[in-house]
Structure of EamA family transporter RarD:
Amino acid sequence: MSSNHVVIGLMPLSPVPIKPSPPQGSTSVGQEPAPSSSKPVRSENSTGMLFGFAAYGLWGMLPLYFILLLPANSLDIVANRVLWSVIFCALIITVTRGWPKIATAVKNPRILGTLSIAGVLIVINWLTYVFAVTSGNAIEASLGYFINPLVSVLLGVIILKEKLRPLQWGAVGVGFVAVVVLAISYGKLPWIALVLAFSFGLYGFVKNRVGGKVDALTSLSVETAALTPFAIITIVILMSTGQATLTTMGAGHFWLLASTGIVTAVPLLLFGASARRLPMTTIGLLQYVAPLLQFAVAIVFLGEHMGLDRWIGFGVVWLALVILTVDQVNHFRKFSRLRRAAA
């Protein structure tokens, strides 16, 4: 499998690598120095785990935040999210003096074009996710992020013509069975989950094309800046048709919508701090925290129903993820042994 990034999407904006390769987006804001050799490894790992759980925990609780934004519709929420993310990123970039990096990225046509495409893919992901949560389909949304690692493996085969290891083929096959079971359960293809999984898988693939040339904050800033004109046009249209809620629902609602920029950027920065400190296998396991929390929130707080047939379908998905995770851990250990032997 390639070093495709596996994100929790809406979340996250920096997909998580599940293979030992240099992750794009693993650089946190403020240009953190690489962990000093004088610091105990255990201390670095503990700090990384803390940042990681904080990032994925915030992403996992996002359904509750989007419910608070009602009666704003998904277009209203996402347009504001883009706009306020740009504003918040600009503030951080100013404080950290990161404008030269933005200028370098914008002046490079390949990087600018790639990040613009990534922006289109992530806004599709955001729109689908917000629609799912606000329309009572948060469980299916969590399914999308559960199957995302399987989609990343599949994209490696389709796009990069990679050869899969036997356990990877097994995981993909079991995942296919799960989709069939869930399609029977829902009475239709779980399109929300599939759109989320494929849009985020493609997003990770596109982001991987720029490699380590831009850090997470620069990437998010350029992606959302490319979308800002469309976000402003959307907000204007919504205002003209009486559907915009930014200034019509009181101060509390205004600040909740304005905070979408903070809600978008902060988990990303926490993830960046975590990814600098933890092995990629650990990051790969942490990625399941967010969909697990989304799943729990949908059942416990949003009151969504899980029949026996859906439990069976999700169980098959989780089996596929166990198989994939075992393969990734074994492969990483083998890679580490070979690297040590070579050294």
In short: The mean pLDDT is 86.
